[in-house]
């Protein structure tokens, strides 16, 4: 079995013997050999350039994906910060009521639960909007 390295050497020898067998002079032999090597180099260069173009395209796509993912993460972190702030405010409000008027604490607990339910609904809407924007950006054509 002939591997790639020995296959290239065999091709070069075939060119040499073909040139000698046809009776072409020494200068033509060297020219044929140089032409053959020039063609091989051009082919190798074309393959390398094609690979570079392919890799550049993949890098550009990954960079675009990275920007989208970063924006999604930042939006999700903002939702989490907002949610934490809401919960802390309600908790601190309950503590203030318990300190100021412990007898009214039970009354305020139900109000705080209602407010928390409203906040959870708003958070769910916000999360859905973020996810929809991310999906729309993912399906958008790539920026050039």
Task: Tell me what the structure shows.
The protein has helices at residues 4-21, 26-100, 105-139. With 144 residues, it is mainly α. The two termini are 47 Å apart. 89% of the residues lie in helices and 0% in strands. Helix 2 (26-100) runs antiparallel to helix 3. The chain has one domain (8-139).
Labels describing this entry:
144 residues, mainly alpha, 3 helices, rod-shaped
Question: Could you outline the blueprint of secondary structure elements for this entry?
Answer:
Layout: H1 4-21, H2 26-100, H3 105-139
Mean pLDDT: 82
Number of self-contained structural domains: 1
Spans where pLDDT lies below 50 across 5 or more residues: none
H/E element order: HHH
What is the CA-CA span between the terminal residues?
A: 47 Å
Q: What is the number of helical segments per DSSP (H or I, 4+ residues)?
A: 3
Beta-strand content bin: under 5%
Query: What is the molecular shape?
Result: rod-shaped
Instruction: Please tell me how large the radius of gyration is.
Output: 36 Å
Helix and strand composition category:
mainly alpha
- Report the sheet with the most strands, covering strand number, pairing sense and barrel closure: none
Level of helix content?
A: over 70%
Give me the count of strands. Answer: 0
Keywords: Membrane, Transmembrane, Transmembrane helix
Transmembrane segments: 12-34
In short:
Keywords: Membrane, Transmembrane, Transmembrane helix. With 144 residues, the chain is mainly α.
